Amino acid sequence: MSKPLKQIHLAAHFPGVNNTTVWSDPRAGSHIEFSSFAHFARTAERARFDFLFLAEGLRLREQDGKIYDLDVVGRPDTFTVLAALAAVTEHLGLTGTINSTFNEPYEVARQFASLDHLSGGRAAWNVVTSWDAFTGENFRRGGFLPQEERYSRAKEFLATANELFDSWHGDEIVADPATGTFLRDAKAGAFVHHGRHFDIHGRFNVPRSPQGRPVVFQAGDSDEGREFAASSADAIFSRYSTLEAGRSFYADVKRRLAAYGRRPDQLLILPAATFVLGDTDEEAEEAAREVRRAQVSGATAIKHLEFVWNRDLSAYDPDGPLPDIDPLPGENTIARGRAQVRMYRDPLTTAREWRELAAAHDWSIRDLVINTGNRQSFVGSPATVAREIDAFVQADASDGFILVPHITPGGLDAFADTVVPLLQERGVYRTEYEGTTLRDHLGLAHPDAGAAAERAAS
């Protein structure tokens, strides 16, 4: 008997200003005006996507002590944007990245519970940690935590937030016109948490929301991150966009669930994916080459090389050869606030490999950055892209994709109009929303209020 077809989950990431987005394209719009967010969200909802996703930067990035004006993080506050989008959408999930290193559980739990109420049960939280002291300078606590401490705090942060969500058990509210009393149970919202990172007690002032708790996403790729996702998350982002690497990551994370009493279908794996469409595969390939060159200007190429060399390379010609000097070892002081720096943990080895590649292909600095950077995940005609997405999911390399267009805000339009109908024809993608909450869209169970009450009581 043949295996039943898996249903594909699709979501959309609003990329903001970065080197993914081609801002030189005349179709590019604002990354801060609400009309851009509204257009993007409405397109995603028209295509029956599960959710829209916003990342968040907590400090302006710097390069050699100056604001990195090729890639400025200047987006409005995540919660403000998502709350506004709740008013112009009806079904689309609203996912925000909120840091567990520099925030506090009560405040974050209150914000997400409020968003879940305002949206009718469509809120989701991407739980992340912060890895550098540079970002920490913006916050009272300052500094940064070693990796093991970051995940320890994140785990307790999420557990504490869940205690707050669960402090309302679902049946406490009762109206008594005679006395004006609205609480049947004086313990409603009461919480006590004594832990290593948080020691708080009081009363949570937001009643239990439609989903009980927001959907929880996690994005770590380290062993600690994978364990955190297996123990606590509803979905995990993945950076693996090739079939072999995707299947390996998928199998590894799914096998970890059993240790926490969870089934494989209780955690979704959703890689980020870029795409370029054309009327034919050849047309799309040519367009993809043009997009990559637009994403990596000469100035961008030099800045990217500085991530590895940890030196000022502004005197080098981006259309010339790679530097013959070696990277400076130790803490990166050239590029600050950029997660990409962590990708190159052995700069000397990376530099040697890049020189070998450049020599073998006669690449300039810009050619190298273009060809070693992230290529588009899916390139081709709508039929080709639909077929490849379906094959990826059916092969258990993912449960779906978070699409990252290179044009904002209209970059999803062609995908919604051409690829989605083909996936629907294949019978692997919804034609209508079948539920009202994000948990319904993702096929995730709602937390049981009774079990939550028992946990809170204990």
Automatic annotation (TrEMBL):
<dbReference type="InterPro" id="IPR051260">
    <property type="entry name" value="Diverse_substr_monoxygenases"/>
</dbReference>
<dbReference type="Pfam" id="PF00296">
    <property type="entry name" value="Bac_luciferase"/>
</dbReference>
<keyword id="KW-0503">Monooxygenase</keyword>
<feature type="domain" description="Luciferase-like">
    <location>
        <begin position="24"/>
        <end position="395"/>
    </location>
</feature>
<comment type="similarity">
    <text>Belongs to the NtaA/SnaA/DszA monooxygenase family.</text>
</comment>
<keyword id="KW-0560">Oxidoreductase</keyword>
<keyword id="KW-0285">Flavoprotein</keyword>
<dbReference type="InterPro" id="IPR016215">
    <property type="entry name" value="NTA_MOA"/>
</dbReference>
<dbReference type="GO" id="GO:0004497">
    <property type="term" value="F:monooxygenase activity"/>
</dbReference>
<dbReference type="InterPro" id="IPR011251">
    <property type="entry name" value="Luciferase-like_dom"/>
</dbReference>
<dbReference type="InterPro" id="IPR036661">
    <property type="entry name" value="Luciferase-like_sf"/>
</dbReference>
<protein>
    <submittedName>
        <fullName>NtaA/DmoA family FMN-dependent monooxygenase</fullName>
        <ecNumber>1.14.-.-</ecNumber>
    </submittedName>
</protein>
<keyword id="KW-0288">FMN</keyword>
